[in-house]
Specification:
By secondary structure, this protein is of the alpha+beta class. It contains 13 helices and 23 strands. The strands form six sheets. The protein has a four-stranded mixed beta sheet with strand order 21-22-1-23. Strand 19 and strand 20 form a beta hairpin. The relative contact order is 0.15. The structure holds shikimate-3-phosphate. The site of shikimate-3-phosphate (S3P) has 10 residues, from helix 5.
Length: 433
């Protein structure tokens, strides 16, 4: 499936993008191991979160089919999961495999978890190392999936100093910690998204965050909860950038999660001159939520503060589209993690920006982008959803047509992207060849 985009246009109206991916995964995982019936609303019916849902069904958890983002989970308790009959395939989803392998390490049964071609190339040593220190036995294919997790291991709590700022690694260790004897604690080189901690607390499982140390005691109980998932700021980010770069735009994004460990994109875009208004700020199920109004504004290049990188990690590709439309140079550093996402996002963005005539210099840990006029062209997405959506947004300021090849993976995180984007003004056509 490819996207064809006519140049120009503006974004207007009021939209709600789909539910937060990180919270959707966690709602299934924690709801499954809680006691009692959990209800979820705002669930992201994208392929990644649905892969997590299917995996927990395979482990014997009754979960209703999501309809309009609503589902219920009959929790089986911390010790109630059953051995899956087959290999669990989580497709493209790094969050599913990394979080689940922590949880699976504490089960009495063996399990195997795998994924698609992209996932089979992604590094798992980062979770295998701490989980092994806790007593887990996990074999991999040279540090990559498939992962075989041995059951029946007695886990012991550890303290782990994360070498990379990764919420997936932190969460994996904490989920194993639920099954470990004693206390499990982690420190991070920089703060990362804290949905696991918040949601565990929401399920009545105490997680302590003090002086940068996040810890929990093994062997407790999660109690069923009602989880209301806000719209995903990572999906909203495409529209924040689109409305910022397209003259005449005035767009409202409704009910967006603006957790302070996720809102780096707002601060970065504002530093570039973007006009983003945060309206109706409120707390929903322990997570800060707001409506965001964004209007076109001239942007300027900046040095992206390195401390914002983990707080905007998934939004950086589309931030680079903003950089291409900005006056002057934008410098991104300290973002080597982008090289091990669904594609090497530094390489994918450098290649695509060059296709559109935008000067850029990729570096091992980032990229420098000089703003300028964007031509049309053909973009290779490397089967990466966020690359596909970033270059679709670029069309708003291109001088000619853009073809974005291989866009089917958009459905992993943002089902309905093309329809929603067209509704607010992107001139996009889907070709199913
Ligand atoms: C996620 C953490 C981030 C992010 C991913 C979702 C999560 O990955 O890129 O899309 O839900 O914990 P890392 O932990 O690898 O940075």
């Amino acid at each position: 499936m490819h996207f064809y985009l006519d140049p120009g246009g503006k974004l207007t109206g009021s939209i709600r993008v789909p539910g937060d991916k990180s919270m959707s995964h966690r709602s299934i995982m924690l709801g499954s191991i809680a006691e009692g019936r959990t209800t979820v609303s705002g669930f992201l019916e994208g392929e990644d979160a649905l892969a997590t849902l299917a995996a927990f069904r395979a482990m014997g958890v009754q979960i209703t089919d999501p309809t309009a983002g609503r589902l219920t989970i009959e929790g089986v308790g911390l010790r109630g999961l059953r051995s899956p009959e087959q290999v669990m395939d989580v497709g493209n989803s790094g969050t599913s495999i990394r979080l689940m392998v922590g949880l699976l390490s504490g089960q009495p049964f063996d399990s195997i978890i795998t994924g698609d071609q992209s996932l089979l190339r992604r590094p798992m040593g980062r979770v295998i190392t701490p989980l092994s220190q806790m007593g887990a036995l996990i074999s991999s294919h040279e540090g990559c999936p498939p992962l075989e997790v041995k059951g029946g291991r007695a886990l012991a709590g550890i303290h782990y100093d994360l070498p990379v700022a990764s919420a997936q690694v932190k969460s994996s260790v904490l989920l194993a910690g639920l099954y470990a004897q004693g206390r499990t604690s982690v420190t991070e080189p920089a703060p990362t998204r804290d949905h696991t901690e918040r949601m565990l607390n929401g399920f009545g499982y105490p997680v302590d965050t003090r002086d940068g140390v996040i810890s929990l005691e093994g062997g407790g109980t999660l109690s069923a909860a009602d989880i209301d998932i806000p719209a995903d700021i990572s999906s909203a980010a495409f529209f924040l950038v689109g409305a910022s770069i397209a003259p005449g735009s005035d767009l409202i994004l409704e009910h967006v999660g603006i957790n302070p460990t996720r809102d780096g994109v707002i601060r970065i875009l504002r530093a570039m001159g973007a006009d983003i208004e945060i309206m109706n700020e409120r707390l929903v199920g322990g997570e800060p939520v707001a409506d965001l109004r964004v209007r076109h504004a001239p942007l300027n290049g900046i040095e992206i503060p390195e401390e914002e990188v983990p707080l905007a990690i998934d939004e950086l590709p589309v931030v680079l589209i903003a950089a291409a439309c900005a006056e002057g140079v934008t410098v991104l550093r300290g973002a080597e993690e982008l090289r091990v996402k669904e594609s090497d996002r530094i390489a994918s963005m450098a290649e695509g920006l060059s296709q559109l005539g935008i000067r850029n210099t990729p570096r091992p840990d980032g990229i420098e982008v000089t703003g300028g006029e964007m031509s049309g062209g053909v973009i290779a997405t490397h089967f990466d959803h966020r690359i596909a959506m970033s270059f679709s947004i670029a069309a708003l300021r291109a001088t000619d047509r853009i073809k974005v090849s291989d866009c089917a993976h958009v459905a992993t995180s943002f089902p309905g992207f093309s329809e929603l984007a067209v509704r607010c003004g992107l001139q996009l056509e889907v070709a199913d060849e």
